[in-house]
## 1
Amino acid sequence: MSQTVKLAVGSLLVGLLVLGLKTLAWWMTGSVALLSDAMESTVNVVAAMVALIAVRVAAIPADANHPYGHHKAEFLSAVLEGVMIVIAALLILREASLAFLDPKPLIAPFDGLVVNAVATAVNGIWCWVLLSGGRRLLSPALVADGRHLLADVVSSVGVTLGVLAAILTGWHWLDPALAALVAVNVLWSGWKVMSASVSGLMDESLPDETLARVREVISTEAVGAVEAHDLRTRHAGRVTFIDFHLVVTGATTVAAAHDICDRIEAALHAAVPHSRVSIHVEPEHKAKHNGIVVL
């Protein structure tokens, strides 16, 4: 079992634990704000299941029907997770509006807040594990799951402080008002998750900093060539695809051109982990004089 799959399984188990704790906290208090927190955790569990399926599919080797691999399954997972986050937010808004029309005092509030605080601490620890592990393993599904948990942690802290304020002041309307604020925060989180994933599905180029590094590597390692042009990049899950045209002189043999390509590929693999490099070699008259200059 790969590290990515292990983290995805861990997310599912942690999600079930946190959901149980938050549901218990709501049952103990009757707080709509805590109910909204528990509803968001329901989405966490479903999202963890989707992420687990996605990372397993993404790990399937390339085949005849998918010659570039199955890496984009993780982006699809992240988009689906964003949609579920938005649905959860709408459900929370509904509960908040009903409770706002008929606010009620809380039952055993302090005990419930302690249980909810424990669930929030567990979520916070696992959020850090997911974000650090997902970035290290270049897994969009795990990073999306981690960002969602981060939003959950922030909203849970806000809910805890707000419910505490409602208890101390006796302003029962604070409880549904907090639930509404949680819903807005969840909506924003869902939008960010979906927008980041759509960029991957649309074959967005690498970030400017990484792209500059790629150009630098090609310029440095293409000694013996004339220039490189038509550089294109895209990312699919943890894999980065890089392709460009390399212009060589007419006196360059096939073997020599192949050696130059091998040298460039090795340097790009070192600079951009999990990269797939394709180089199209062209004769000198194909030079465009506006590409990457060879040092």
Note: Strands lie at 227-236, 239-247, 275-282, 292-293.
## 2
Amino acid sequence: MIRTFLKVHGSGNTFYLYNTSEENEFDWVHLTKWLCNKTNEGGADGLLLVLPSKVADAKMRVINADGSEASMCGNGLRCVARYVCEKLGTESADIETMKATLHVRKENPIFDSIPTYAVEISPVSFELSSLPMTYKNQTELQHQIINEFSPTIPFTAVSVPNPHLIGILEQGSLDDQNHQQQLATFLNSENDYCKDGVNVSYVYPLKNDTIFVRTFERGVGFTNACGTAMTASALVSNLNGVVDAKVVTVYNPGGFVKCEVIQHEDNYQLTLIGNATYTSRYEIEINQTNYQFIARHDTTEQEQYEKCIEFVNKELDALIS
């Protein structure tokens, strides 16, 4: 049987997107590992499944490159938001995810004419049990030095709902990944702190409303961008005075997004705004667990996005020079 898959990305975080009415149509773990293998059309970071929902306009499932399932994906949700809104002919929709039903909407282009969508990121919790994470007898970990991790970097643990450990750097090079990679690799193997692993992000302050975020994503490794990580980083930066704006520009290796942070006492309303780019449409033949690419049809949207990358690089050069 031949099925159609879209190749999409949000901030360079690349996925295959597949719409089906049958939740168990294929072995998603096996298929995702094959799709994400870098020897197959450059691979991807995961598979986005668009499914029927009884409580929303559609349901999204996210299968990571290693076959594990994520509870949410902000960059992926933007791509699903576009797919669902265009399919329904609407400007907004509600998407069911593993932990919550989230509102999404079409936005004005973030750069030139790039298709742009805003998505709700929720729920938010600083309880270590929500990640889950264990550190001594603490129930929360906010902007705190953990000597076992680093004697100079303060870390915050937060779930949105994916688990994140956010470190704020006051010094260091954007190009130096060694410490982050060592820590993230440790926390995503057998350890006493995060039994299910955790996404580890390092935040570099740039301006009062601008940060740079690099993320080592659980189940993937270093990614061009992680939507929930960028949103969590904007929240943590806002709470700790790193930025003082409600709308934070977040640069990342794959481009940039806008993150809106609104606080009502202990409640947080978070919105992630960024591109939803379609790069290709693939026809793939699937016979049980045997797969073959049959045809590929590229769009012109990536050309638009490359201009955005050029803009980001120039802005970063100006900010860090």
Note: Residues 2-121+275-320 form a domain with the Diaminopimelate Epimerase; Chain A, domain 1 fold (CATH 3.10.310.10).
